[in-house]
Amino acid sequence: ILPKLKTARQHTELEPAILHRAYQAALGAMQLGRSERHHLVERGLSADDLERLTANGYRSAPTSWPLRNAVAEVVLAAVGPDAARSLPFLQPSRRSPIGFTCSDIPGLLVPVRNAARQIIACKVRLVDQGKSRYLWWKARHSSASTGAPIHVSQTPTATLAVVVEGPIKADLVALLWPQIYGEAVTVLAIPGATAHAGLVESLHQLGLRRVVLAL
C-alpha cells in the first residue's frame, strides 16, 4: 500500500488546457532531427516505434535564432501575449520582431503529459551530457516555473500501472510492455526517485490499484 503523500505543487499559474495549447503549437513548429532520431534507434526502437513517438510529440529542441522565433510566433498566436508571459519556455526578447523567443537548450524534446493527456511541460535530453542528462525545457530569462509534474503515458484499457523515473522511460515502457507481455499498461514517471509528490493522487485519478514500482 502506498503512503498518502502531499499534493503536487502547481507548476505554473496557467491552466492545463492553455499549457497544452501552447506546447502543441510549439511542437507543431518543430521536427525530430537526425541525431535525436539516431539516439532513439540506439535504444532499440523500430521504425514504427519512432513514428509513434514522433506522433506523441518527440522533437529536436530548437536552437537556431530563426526557429526559436518561429516557435515563439506560433505560440503567441495560439495563446496570446498575456499567457505567453507565463510560459516557462518563452522569454521576452528585444531582438525578436514579436518580442518573444523560446529556450535554446539543445537536445531531444520530450512532452510531459498529465492524466488527461494534456502536455503540461517538456523535458530535454541534453546533447552534451556533462553532469546532467535531463533539463526542463525552460528559457534562461523566464520567470515562470515548470515545477516537477508527473508524466503519464496512459492506456485507457489498462488495469496495471508501472512507476518509473523520467518521461522517456515511461514512454518506452508503454510502447514495449504490450509487445513483450501482451498486457496493456499505463506508465507514470516521477521526476526523480524522491520526487513523488502527487503520485498517489494520480493513481487514484486513473483508477489504478495494481502498481509496479520500477525505479
Structural class: alpha+beta
Shape: globular
Segments where pLDDT lies below 50 for 5+ residues?
1-11
Q: In which range does the helix fraction lie? A: 25-40%
Please count the helical segments. Answer: 7
Reading side by side through the largest sheet, how are the strands ordered?
Answer: 1-4-5-6
Order of helices and strands: HHHEHHEEEEEEEHEHE
Largest sheet: 4 strands, antiparallel
Q: Average pLDDT, to the nearest integer?
A: 89
**Number of DSSP strand runs:** 10
Rounded to the nearest angstrom, the distance between the terminal CA atoms is 17 Å
Q: What integer value in Å does the Rg equal?
A: 17 Å
Strand content: 15-25%
General description of the model:
Helix content is 34%, strand content 20%. It has helices at 16-28, 34-42, 47-55, 65-79, 81-84, 167-181, 199-206; strands at 59-60, 90-92, 100-102, 107-113, 119-126, 134-136, 151-153, 160-165, 186-190, 210-213. The chain is globular and about 50 Å long. The strands form three sheets. It has a four-stranded antiparallel β-sheet, covered by helices on one side. Strands 7-9-8-10 form a four-stranded mixed β-sheet, covered by helices on one side.
Keywords:
single chain; 215 residues; alpha+beta; four-stranded antiparallel beta sheet; four-stranded mixed beta sheet; 7 helices
SSE inventory with pairings:
Elements: H1 16-28, H2 34-42, H3 47-55, E1 59-60, H4 65-79, H5 81-84, E2 90-92, E3 100-102, E4 107-113, E5 119-126, E6 134-136, E7 151-153, E8 160-165, H6 167-181, E9 186-190, H7 199-206, E10 210-213
Parallel strand pairs: 8-9, 8-10
Antiparallel strand pairs: 1-4, 2-3, 4-5, 5-6, 7-9
Helix pairs in contact: 1-4
